[in-house]
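User: Can you help me understand a structure? I only have the sequence.
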Amino acid sequence: MDERERLKSFEQTVLPHLDAAYNLARWLAGNDHDAQDVAQEACLRALKFFGSFRGDNARAWLLSIVRNTFYTWLRKNRPPENVIELGEEGLAVEDITVNAEILNSRLADTETIRRAIEELPVEFREVVILREMEGFSYKEIAGLADVPIGTVMSRLTRARRQLQKRLAGEFKPGVKP
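Assistant: Let's start by predicting it. Here is the structure, written out as C-alpha cells:
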C-alpha cells in the first residue's frame, strides 16, 4: 500500500472516532487545552502505528492510544494523583429520601455532575467515561486499559458509589451545592 492509500485508509478508519478520542482525553485531562494536546499526540501516534492496526475495532484501538498517551503525558506534566482505596465502610451510601421534584430539577444540573466525575480518581473516571459515555463493554474496557475484567468491574462499582455519595449530598433537599 502506498502512502496515499495508507492516509486514505487512516482517514476512513480512524478519523470518524476523533470526537470519542477528544471526549476521553477531555475527561481524563480535566481541561480543553491539555485534552487537545493529548488527542493530537494520540492521533499522531495512531497515524505512525496505523500499520499495526488489524482492522477489528478502530474506536477501541484509537481510545487505547488516547489512554496510553494521556498516562504518558500525565507522568511528564503533573504530580501523581492520589488513588483512594476504600474499605467497605467507605463504599456504603446513605439511604437518602429525596423529594422527586427537587431531585429531577437538580439532575438537570449537568455542571454538578461533570464536577463530580472530574473529582473521581483518574482510574475511576476513565472507566466511567468508557462505560457510561462511550458505551464500551467490560471486556472492551479491560482490553483497552490492559487490566482484568474484575478490576474494571471493581473500579466501576467504586466510581459509581463515589458518584452516588457525592451527588446524594449535592441533591439533598434544602442543601445548596
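Now, to help you interpret it: Residues 82-98 have pLDDT under 50 and may be disordered. The two ends are 57 Å apart (CA to CA). Let me know which part you'd like to focus on.
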